[in-house]
Design a protein that fits this description.
325 residues; alpha+beta; Deoxyuridine 5'-Triphosphate Nucleotidohydrolase, Chain A; three-stranded antiparallel β-sheet; 15 strands
Length: 325
């Protein structure tokens, strides 16, 4: 009965059956295949190579990429018999659960007895976020079955992808050339707008020109609709910001008037206090002088100069008061 190889048996395959294998990728009953360097962006047909200057690949939402494994499998009988005489190897390959958790859809596949080459897959990003993968990242799980005598196939794998390494585009033979439209089945509903538009395009000159133009306009309308939605959201945000600024501006004049009234009142009080202090000082000097004959005689002789001194002192005092905040 076919048995699943454990970690001890898998380590024996590194370097021969699993070319470029790494012991750190060995699992209890499997091997983690790593992301190879070359592949293709399916949506655009652009090739990529992340093995040298580039370090990884990014998959945008709704996009697909064709990728290849870093390791090469050699299930050819002459290679396997060096380790397991008279037996063959068969493998199941499935994506890691990390991919499905992130919305990445990838297919499972098999490696038949006798297969030799590099495995390829397609990764499709069905999530709403960009997904990134780096070179040699573990993305697939390889489970290897050892086929006992009586389970080995009579005819080993000799398909189109035998001994192919790197990324290989599909070699599926397409439909024969010359099939009629009536021989195809599609998703269009009879009488629906898409069906009517396609019929118009197939009607020949000059209707196909009109149909093609309408199809272009439909795509442009979809683009305009999406752009209008973005503009509408931007206008709403701008209106909100303008209203907030307007509310702040409405409150500004009242705030200014309040501050001016407070400053004017404070300034008026300072001037009154200064003037009152000077007036009281003059009264005190006058009373002192009038009650003393010697002082009165002195003032009579030097009154002009003393008056000028007081005027200067008053001017200095007023200047100091006016500069205070």
């Amino acid at each position: 009965m076919a048995t699943i190889l454990n970690d001890t048996e898998i380590k024996r395959l590194l370097g021969t059956v699993i070319v470029d294998g790494d012991p750190s990728c060995v699992r209890p009953n499997g091997y983690a295949l790593r992301l190879g360097s070359v592949g293709e962006f399916i949506n655009t047909g652009k090739d990529f190579d992340i093995g040298s200057k580039k370090k990884g690949v990014r998959i945008q939402p709704g996009h697909s990429v064709g990728v290849t494994a870093f390791e090469t499998l050699d299930f050819r009988r002459e290679t396997v018999h060096q380790i397991y005489p008279g037996q063959d190897l068969h493998a199941f390959i499935s994506p890691t659960t990390d991919l499905s958790r992130e919305g990445i859809v990838a297919q499972s596949t098999q490696a038949d007895a006798g297969y030799h080459g590099t495995l390829n897959w397609t990764l499709t990003n069905t999530s709403s976020e960009e997904r990134r993968f780096v070179h040699k990242e573990r993305i697939f799980r390889l489970t290897i079955f050892k086929l006992e005598k009586g389970e080995t196939p009579d005819h080993l794998y000799t398909g189109d992808y035998q001994s192919q390494t790197g990324y290989v585009r599909s070699k599926r033979i397409g439909a024969p050339v010359g099939m009629k439209d009536t021989e195809w089945e599609d998703a269009f509903v009879k009488g629906g707008p898409e069906n009517l538009l396609e019929n118009l395009i197939r009607s020949g000159y000059p209707w196909h020109i009109l149909g093609s133009r309408l199809k272009e306009i439909d795509q442009q309308l979809k683009t305009v609709t999406e752009e209008y939605a973005d503009i509408h959201d931007s206008i709403n945000e701008l209106t909100r910001q303008v209203n907030a600024i307007g509310e702040r501006q409405t409150a500004t004049p009242e705030t200014v008037r309040k501050v001016l009234r407070e400053e004017a009142g404070s300034l008026q009080n300072r001037w009154l206090l200064g003037a009152g202090s000077l007036f009281l000082g003059f009264i005190g000097v006058g009373l002192s002088a009038s009650s003393n004959l010697a002082t009165w005689e002195f003032l009579k002789q030097h009154g002009i100069w003393i008056g000028l001194v007081f005027i200067v002192i008053a001017a200095i005092a007023l200047a100091v008061i006016s500069r205070q905040k």
